[in-house]
Amino acid sequence: MINKAYANDMISDETVKTFKKVKKLTKKGSDIRDRILSNELYKILRALPSCIQKTDSDQHVFQYKGSGMKKADRNLKTACKDAGIKYGRFTKGSFVFHDLRHTFNTNMRKALVSESVIMEITGHSTREMFNRYNNIDDDDKRNAVNQLEQFFSNVTQMLSQTEQISKSE
């Protein structure tokens, strides 16, 4: 469930059906967004046993006792408890379902997906909201410093080559 939610920026009450595009009424209720499934997730969903798909008239992907799971966050809380992972919004160092939106947004940026595409996928209409979900971590800082170091190395190399050309003339 976590892989699906993470890979597709799932909102916790979203029902996923096994086809390429999933229509989702936004929380604000004003518009409908397409949820595009990754190729890998689409293959996984298509490979689900037909008995799972037939037990529930709504074709919920995640089921419990033959019925669709409607509250993924509640199920995640139980899974975290069973795995010994802290869960809860107000518990320091804990995990909540909504963390997946931050992770999705950040990793899309790290994968060099353009910000406008990320914003379209996540439904963020303002740069401020994009920034709120885009987390800068130590790897980002380390990569930035290494990029600067590489830049200086290139500049130094170009200056050295320019000096050599000037001396040979």
Explain this structure to me?
This protein is mainly alpha-helical and 169 residues long. The chain has a domain of 84 residues. 53% of the residues lie in helices and 8% in strands. It has 8 helices and 4 strands, in the order αββααββααααα. The strands form 2 sheets. Strands 1-2 form a two-stranded antiparallel sheet. The protein is elongated. About 7% of the residues have low confidence.
Main traits of this protein?
169 residues, 8 helices, mainly alpha, 53% helix, two-stranded antiparallel sheet, elongated
The radius of gyration over CA amounts to 23 Å
Mean pLDDT: 78
Which percent range fits the helix content? 40-55%
Shape descriptor: elongated
First-last Cα distance: 67 Å
Supply the number of helical segments.
8
Q: What's the order of the H and E elements?
A: HEEHHEEHHHHH
Biggest β-sheet: count, sense, barrel?
Answer: 2 strands, antiparallel
% residues in beta strands: 5-15%
Tally of DSSP β-strands: 4
Low-confidence stretches: 11-21
Which structural class do you get from the secondary structure elements? Answer: mainly alpha
